[in-house]
Amino acid sequence: MPCQVFAGAYGGARVTLVQPGRDAGRTGVNNVGTAPAALAAFLATHALKPDLLVNAGTAGGFARQGGAIGDAYVVSAFANHDRRIPIPGYTEYGIGRRDGAAAPNLLAACAGWKSGVCSSGNALDCSAEDAALLEANDACVKDMEGAAIAWACGAAGGPPVLALKVVTDIVDGDKPTEEEFLANLGTAAGALQAAVPKLLDFVIGKTLAEL
What we know:
alpha/beta; Rossmann fold; 6 helices; 8 strands; 35% helix
């Protein structure tokens, strides 16, 4: 599979970084979206049997939720906004809401970090239908992986998912998403690079109940 895996020791724990890799032999771009994310999470859960899966990445934020570029969010729950299946039972299945790992003490320890729902879909832009479901999901951040990773870990009987998302663009703002995303990706990546060690320093050596 195209996944890239890096492993090492940090703070007395074994930490493995799994990336979805590239679209080899086709476009050559980084794999993004729910399918590569779910596959990587499922394989990693089976192979590594981790105590905790941390999904660290970037996301869109919402002005109506008080989001700003560079904000860091610990995800309280995951949902989907592009799986619209108007059939009894399948409506709820499509939304697929799942709780994230509860981490109130982590939030208290990391000043300025926020918490909220992450809603996932396979488009960078936001259609009117997506916007309606994002609001219905009470989304604070919008990404292309989180809900799929939570589903894959649940399906594999795997670990809880603790997601950390840093805002690159404002979904309900007045700028084209792709322009704002590219303009702020470096800033958000830098903020994420600084935030992940803080997260690791806090969670290592603690039980889930202590997070």
